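Submission sheet (multi-component)
Chains listed below:
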Amino acid sequence: MPSSVLSHQIAAQSIGRIPPCTILSEARAAEIEGLAETILAEIGVNFTDNPAALARWQEAGAEVQGERVYIPRGLARRLCATAPASFVQQAVNPARSVTIGGGKPVIAPVYGPPFVLDPVEGRRAARFGDFQMLVRLAHASEAISHAGGTLCEPTDLPLETRHLDMLMAHALLSDKPFMGSTTDPERARDSVAFARTLFGLEGDDLPVLLSALINIGSPLSFDATMSECLEVYAGAGQACVISAYAIMGATAPVTVIGTLAQALAEVMAGTAYAQLVRPGAPVVFGLYANALDTKTGASIFSSPEMTQLTLAAGQLARRMGLPYRAGGCLTAAFEPNAHAGYEAANSLWASQLAGVDFMLHGAGWLESGLVASPEKFVLDTDQISATLRQYDGLQSASGDPLASLREVGPGGHFLGAEETLREGEARLWKSAVLEDRTHDAWEAANRPDTVWHARQCVNRLLDASQPPSLAPERRAALEAFVARRKKEIAGL
Amino acid sequence: MPSSVLSHQIAAQSIGRIPPCTILSEARAAEIEGLAETILAEIGVNFTDNPAALARWQEAGAEVQGERVYIPRGLARRLCATAPASFVQQAVNPARSVTIGGGKPVIAPVYGPPFVLDPVEGRRAARFGDFQMLVRLAHASEAISHAGGTLCEPTDLPLETRHLDMLMAHALLSDKPFMGSTTDPERARDSVAFARTLFGLEGDDLPVLLSALINIGSPLSFDATMSECLEVYAGAGQACVISAYAIMGATAPVTVIGTLAQALAEVMAGTAYAQLVRPGAPVVFGLYANALDTKTGASIFSSPEMTQLTLAAGQLARRMGLPYRAGGCLTAAFEPNAHAGYEAANSLWASQLAGVDFMLHGAGWLESGLVASPEKFVLDTDQISATLRQYDGLQSASGDPLASLREVGPGGHFLGAEETLREGEARLWKSAVLEDRTHDAWEAANRPDTVWHARQCVNRLLDASQPPSLAPERRAALEAFVARRKKEIAGL
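Outcome: structure written.
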C-alpha cells in the first residue's frame, strides 16, 4: 500500500471517520498505470476537427497521424504534474466558496436531464421554470455545496441562448458556485464573460469562478466541441472536470481492469492537454460509469463492477494528485421507489468510500440521468446530510463516557438519563423527510408514501428559502451583458 | 493501526476486494476496551433469577452482590480466549454447511417479526403458512446461506409448541443451517434434541448443528430465559450469537463511544459466561443497533451513528478474535418503498464494510423488525447477491486486458467487440428483480412498480424451488419426536 494512502487512512481513523477505501494493491495500481501508458503510446487518442490541438500535441513531443495523437510513455504524466491537487472555486457569497480536493466532498445536483418528473403532469420535457426551481432547491439545501450547471435542460428556451438564461438563473437564485456551458466554445466564452461580470473581475489571472464538465467521447476521443471548450476554460484558469464516459460494454470494455486503464488514459490525455493550454489549469479527474446490460441494452447502476470502478479510479486519481469526481445518487429507476433508493444509496456509498472530491449528480437524478425529480432531490440530500456527518468523525462524550450508564445501571433505561435529555436530540442524526410516525398514526394520516413526504419537504424548503442578494449594479451589468449577447446571437 | 488489521487490508487489496473498514485508531480501540473493563468491574452485570449462574461467576473469581456480578479487570477477557475465531455450522446437506468467521459473510433472513405484509390482505399477524413460505424462500435464494430461525412468529400456533412446528418446517423445507429456539430453556433443549434426531447424532461431542440468538437485556442484564438458553446451547457445544441490544437513547447511551463500551462489556460478559459453561463453546459477537428519536420515539436506522457503531464494533470483535454479527437490510419503513431502499442499502453497506461474519435480518425486514415481507426479501437478496460478488475480488481480463480497446479503437464502440460478445453477459452483475425496460416499454406494461416486480420474483422462486430430500427414517424419527413432545407439553 502506498504510504500516502496509508497515512490518509490513519489520519481518518484518528478522528473516527471512514477512510477512503483502497482496493488496488500497489502492484495492481502500477499495472493499470502501465496499461494506460500503453494505450496512449500504442492506441492513441483522437482530437477531431481541431488542428490547433494536434499542433499543440506535436509541439509537445507526441506523434500525430491524421487526427490521432500517440503520446510517448511518460509524457502525459509529466505534463499532468502541473495540475493542482486542490483549488478553491469562488462563490459570489465568499462564505460559500468551496475547496475541491480539500478532503471533504463538494456536492452538486443532477446535471443534464431533458425531462422532469412533475408531481402533477408526470414525466415531461423540462422547462426553464423547472430549472429555476431546481436552482432554488440547490440554493436552499444545506447538503448541497455547489449549485451545479444544467440542472435540467430548459427545452422551452431556444438552444442558441439557453445558456445565458441558465447563467442568469444561477446568479439570481443562488449564491453558491456553479458551472459554465460546454455545449459550444462560444457559449463557454459567454460563461467566462458572464462570470467576470458577476464577480466584477478583469485581467488574465482570474481565480476559479467556474467549473465545466468536459465529457470525453469515450473511447479515447475528444471532439471539437469538448476540446475547444476545454481550451476556453483552461485558458482562462477555470476548472475542467475531465470525465471518462465509461459505459462498460458500450463506450468501455466489459472488464473492470480494461475500463480503468482506458479511463485513466483518457483523463491523462485531457489533463495533459489542459496543461499544454495553460500550465497549472485546475482539473478534476472525472469518471462517469455505468454498465450496459448487453442483452437488453438497459443501464446497470450501483453493481459490484460500478463500485469497483468508482473505488479504484479514486485511488488512481489520488496517485495522480488530482481531485476526483465520481458517483452521485445514480439510478435507472423511473420514480423515487425502492429501486431508486437501493441504487442511489449504493452509488452514494461507493462515492464516499472512493474519497470523491466533487460529486456531480448528487441529488435529483432518475432514469439513468434522463429525468430530474425535485422529490428525489430532497430524498438524496437527506441521505447526503447523513454521509457528511462522517466527516465530523466520532463525537466524543462530554465528560465521562460512562456517566449515563453509571446513572442508569444494569437493567435500567436511558430515556430519562441526564445525558439523553441534554444531548439526545442534538447528537443523533435524524432524517428530515422520511416517515417517522407509528404505523397507527401513519394509517390515520392515509398512509402517505415517501414521495408525498418528499413533496412536502420540497415545498417547505422553497417556502423558507431566502433568495440571495446581488448588488443592483452587478445585476444591471449582467442583464446588459445577456441582452447584448442575445441580440448578437439573433443577428448571426 | 494494529498489524493484523493492516495485513487483512493488504490481503483484501491483493485480490481487489473491499477490505473491512477500520475507523478506530489503536488508541481509541484500547480506550474503549478499557472502558468496558471499567464497566464490568465497577458497574457490573445482572444475571437475574439464575442462582447457578451467580455461583459459577463467584467460583470463577467475580464478586457477586445480590444478582449483580462484578468482574475484575482482565477476567472476562481471559475467559473469552477459549472461544473459537471461527466454526462450521453443519447443514443437513453437507454442501450447505457454513463457516462463520471464515472471511465471507453467512447471510440469514429476518428474525422475529409478529406481522407480515401480505400482498392481498395488507399488514396482518403472521401465520405458520407465512413462516413456511419464508423458509422456502430462504431455501431457494442463492444469496441466503443460512435459513435463520423465527423468520416470522407463527401467531396462529400455540406458543407452547410453536417451536416444534418451526423446527419441523426448517427440516422439511430447507437443507440449509438453521437456528434453535430461545424463548424458554425447555424449548432450547427441544431444539438440541430435534437437531440430534435430524442429524442422527448422539453423545457429548456434537458438531455445531444449531445457532441461537441470545439477546442481552441491555443495559448489562441477562434474564433467566437468556442465561439458561445460553447454558443449554453452550453446554451442548452449539453456537450462541450473543447480541448487545443497543437502542441509543433507550437501552444504550446517546453517545457512540458509550454505546460501544457498553456493548463490548455485555458481549464479553456473555461470552465469558459461555466459556464458564463449556470452554471452547462457539460464540458470535453480536450487535443489534438502532437509535431512538428521543423526541418522537421513532426508530432511526442507517444513520451515521449506526454506521459508526457497526464498523467500530466489528473492529472490537476482530480484536477479540470472535466472529461478528451485525446489520442486515434494516429499515423503519412500512413498505418496500424508497425509504426502505435507502435504509436497507445503507445498513447492508455498513455490515459489509464492518467485516460482518453472520448477517441476521439479511432479507425481508420492514418496520423496525415488526413486519416480514416476501417482496422485500427478494429485493434484499438481489442487493446481497451484488455485495457477495465483492468477495470474488476484481476479475482479471482473460488474456490482453486491452484486446477489445485495440479492436475498437478511439471513437469506436464495444457493443460488437469480441470480448463483449463472449463475456459481457457473464461478467456484469445484473439485478434479477429491478425494472430493466425502456420507459416506453414500462408504460406499455402499465407501469409496474418495484413491489410488483418483487412479487413476480417471489412466485418464480417458489415455483422453481425444489424441496430438499430427507431420508424417510429421519423424517419419521422427527415426527415421532415432535408428536411425543407435543403430548408431553399438553400434559403439563
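Remark: Chain B has a mean pLDDT of 95.
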